[in-house]
Amino acid sequence: MKTHVTVIPSDGIISVDGEVLFLDGITSETFHALQWHSDAGHVEPGDGLPNEELSADDYEERVAPFVALWEEEKERLTTEAAAAEEAYNSLENVKARKLTAIDAETSAAILAGFECEATPPDTGVPELLHFSYDEFDQQNFADAALSMQLVATSGDIPTSTPWNAYRGHTADSKGELVILNLTAETFLPIYAAALNHKATQMAIGGQRKAAVAAAQTVEDVEAI
Questions:
Q1: 136, 113 in Cβ contact below 8 A?
Q2: pLDDT given for residue 155 in this prediction
Q3: Who has greater pLDDT, 137 or 156?
Q4: What are phi and psi of 7, to 5 degrees?
Q5: What is the DSSP letter of 152?
């Protein structure tokens, strides 16, 4: 015998010991509500009619059928949840989520930028500086590379370009802005470093994705 049972047919509600489930199958019941607590309860007919009192002798006939419906639905939901969890944690789905994560991590690593030696005009001394490589700056690199190529054939193309770099860059700080003035000669090694940075990160991502494809267990995938 359950301790607390509430049935509200109009809302499809059966609550057993505080856990509410919704069952469309009880909406055809004609009473407003049934309440059971410990060893007694009542049925509320609704429409202003007086409650019908229930005793322990009424439990099996009046209350237990609703409890049985609740238990059946709870078992169905539990089985359904277990099947969904099993599917979610299947090797195929774990691999798919890992591949998505690797793509995102590879993109983030590319967009995070790279380090390359350059000579700031404020010191005149070569030093390792950080260069941004977000989507905007990737386009800037491509545009600058094209303009440097066109310098030899057109007098209208600038022979140098200002470029932002950062001194003392860390994961938590962008660092101190350093404005370089790059010519075709000084731009080329930085452009090469940018291309190598992107290629390296893509190669790392590709290797990780190949390892995911070859993995035989969920544990192997999670370790990649």
A1: no
A2: 62
A3: 137
A4: -125, 125
A5: T
What lies within 8 Å, CB to CB, of 215 at 6+ separation is 91, 95, 221, 224
More confident position, 157 or 27: 27
Q: How far from 47 is each of 27, 44, 70, 73, 139, CA to CA, in Å? A: 17, 9, 26, 30, 73
Reading the block at residue 19, the tokens are: 């856990």
138 is written with which tokens? 């990737």
Q: What is the pTM of this model?
A: 0.75
Domain residue ranges in the chain: 4-81, 91-222
Strands, E assignment, 28-154 = 33-37, 40-44, 52-54, 114-118, 127-131
For tokens 């022979």, name the residue.
Answer: 159
How far is residue 15 from each of residues 80, 103, 153, 215, measured CA to CA in Å? 20, 46, 82, 45
Type of residue at 79: T
Distance of CA 129 to the CA centre of its chain: 33
177 Cβ contact list (under 8 Å, min separation 6) = 164, 165, 166
Task: Quote the CA–CA distance of 130 and 110 in Å, as a whole number.
Answer: 13
As a residue count, the chain comes to 224
pLDDT tens figures, 58-78: 999 999 999 999 999 999 999
Distant-in-sequence, close-in-space partners of 174: CB < 8 Å, separation ≥ 6: 166
As given in the structure block, the two tokens for residue 79 are 């089985």
Tokens of 196: 């190598």
How distant, in Å, are the alpha carbons of 130, 143, 181, 191, 204 from that of 137?
13, 10, 16, 11, 22
The mean-pLDDT minimum among 66-75, 106-115, 145-154 falls in: 145-154
Find the range with the poorest average confidence among 21-25, 120-124, 150-154. 150-154
